Amino acid sequence: MSTAIEAMQERRSVKRYEDYVIPEQDLQDILAAAASAPSSWNLQHWRYLVITSKEMKEKILPIAYNQQQVVEASATIVMLGDLEANKTGTELFGYAVQQGMLTQEIHDSLLGQINGVYQIPQIARDEAILNTSLSAMQLMLAAKEKGYDTCPMGGFDKEAIVKALNIPDRYIPVMLITVGKAAEPARPAGRLPLERLVINESF
């Protein structure tokens, strides 16, 4: 079992995968770990559209500009962001009140804040992308810890995938993530030195 830092350091974007059927339990474990990510107001903006069948992988291949990892990987996961995550807040906080974990006053205050913010479409969109990306990173690290490789993909036709997979208007596709066993190592990728990346206190 690798440590969290080891998983981060060892993770690379793999483009070629073995013909391998991922066990359902492994996939569920990876998704459960991804779903434990933090999110604004705990609204859990992510949804995972999981594609494992050859037929459906072939269907989205041209949508992903014929990038072969989409069909070679054990699973291709469409990471979706929830544009109406405030509705989840109503469900979550209502349950918390019923269980005595939250007062009605705090419940009303929180929902008032959230519903007010979600009247602004750009904020709803930004929150969907931001929080889904947090879950996406956890998904890739969880996969690595369990011995799988991944590749996050932004190169696909978002409008086409919405139509092809009947994705409701409530959700936006944020990225694709392929998951599987590497058939060949990822291409080496350099990293900028830390002193190029860290700004202390102010520019």
From TrEMBL:
GO terms for molecular function: oxidoreductase activity. Keywords: Oxidoreductase. It comes from the Bacteria. Residues 9-181 form the Nitroreductase domain. InterPro entries: Nitroreductase, Nitroreductase-like. Belongs to the nitroreductase family. This is Nitroreductase family protein.
